[in-house]
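Hey, resending since the last one bounced:
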Amino acid sequence: MKLSLGTPSHLYWATIVIVSNLIWTMCRPCDSCSGQTSMFDPLQSSTYKSQTCSASSCMELPIHGCTINQLCGFIYSYEHKYFVEVILASETLLFDM
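The structure tokens again:
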């Protein structure tokens, strides 16, 4: 699905995981995302906020850990064969109807 993300907003493709309350999109920097042209750049948004390990949103995750910078990180697996490494963050989004 397409949605507008960030401030100022830009249009991106995102995946909504209906078994969770999370929305995923690829973000810069991403060393293993070769060929991807439309990635969200958190440094260009005034409303992006990484969540720390002590944030309540991080504590609600069943399995989480801390990055070296004390950010909330976790690995999410799906279909028993894929996984993504994630830094939990909050951001402003608008759905494209």
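The chain has one domain: 2-95.

Sorry for the duplicate.
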